[in-house]
Amino acid sequence: MIGTVVRVGLLRMWHGRTEILLTFVVPIVFFTIFAFIFDEQIGLGKSPRVDLAVVDADRTELSRELVAALARVETLHLYAPADHEGGLFVFHSAAPARELVLRGTLPLAVVVPAGWSRSMANRGEAAPLQLLADASDPVATQVVTALLQQTSGQIMADRAREQIRLALALSPEQLESSPVSQLGAPPDVEVLDLFAADKANPVVSMYAAGIAVMFLLFGAVGNSGTLLEEEENQTLDRLLCSELGMNQLLVGKWLLMTIVGIVQVTIMFAWAQLAFGVDLVGHLPGFTVMTVVTAGAASSFALTLATLCRNRAQLNAVAVILILCMSALGGSMVPRYVMSETMQEVGRITFNAWALDGYIKVFWRDLPIVELAPELAVLTATTIILFGVARLLAHRWESS
Hints:
Helices cover 64% and strands 6% of the residues. The chain is of the alpha/beta class. Helix 3 links the parallel strand 1 (50-56) and strand 2.
């Protein structure tokens, strides 16, 4: 009898394609996604490529040597504007580089302060290099800090060896009083966090956005399943035989799911403010706009899946696979700053990534609504396109 139970179970699994998919295919898919996400990253003993601006306020031979050495580091990509015609591009004041970090264009900017070269020869008075940082990407900050110390230390060591060679003719007393030993030590690096200093639990807002978008998708798909239930119990046929048309039905479903999604995300962020100090009230206009368009896009996505699938079981299986894949690639499950450059670009095909970028602009960078234009445009276009696809797929119910 035990063998019979096992055989019946295996036969049921064999005839249930969805169950086979979830059991054997989905784990491989997720393994592949996460393998690509962490490919060539710190966990494998390698460093991710980091974009940064360089500010040379010192403008000396030593500072120029440091900038040139940083440009030769493979894991660093020095910023240059689009109209720059080759060669190194270096700011001479910190203000424009600081603005690039504040706007999210770059995660970091290295500043060589004025008088830095001269201070390196003074015992105990060496000025530190400054790193203007966006703490939403802590990996980049740690990588660049280490590379700055390594690169500058190598330059100072080379100069120290030259000084020692020249100092061989000096007496021991003269050698001890010379700045040779000071030249061999790498300068300090002062990290200036441009965002987190005046925020309470700043990272929580990013985590809240990632989780909110993922469960917004799950909630919308759950509500869209009522279409398939109504088809199974023939309620849908009766509705379509009334004065209610398919356009009105889909718009009504979309509006309901959008309203529920807005409430769902609002409750999550309200809890984040009460429990963790996320400033929802202070960012209410930007939050409202982002939440409305994100909920609308999620609702259109859910309607597309519902009109594509034949029953709720199939809908649930397809939705789990797609939503988890989109969440992994788009940053809801894994921060995008730990991904390789290729995977970050791939993640842009999901509206999770666009939604998270918008919420980060609102809660982390305190940018005005006008700066949300790219994210709002993509999410609005996604809403319209997916709703149109859902309408085309829903034609099967009218023809039947």
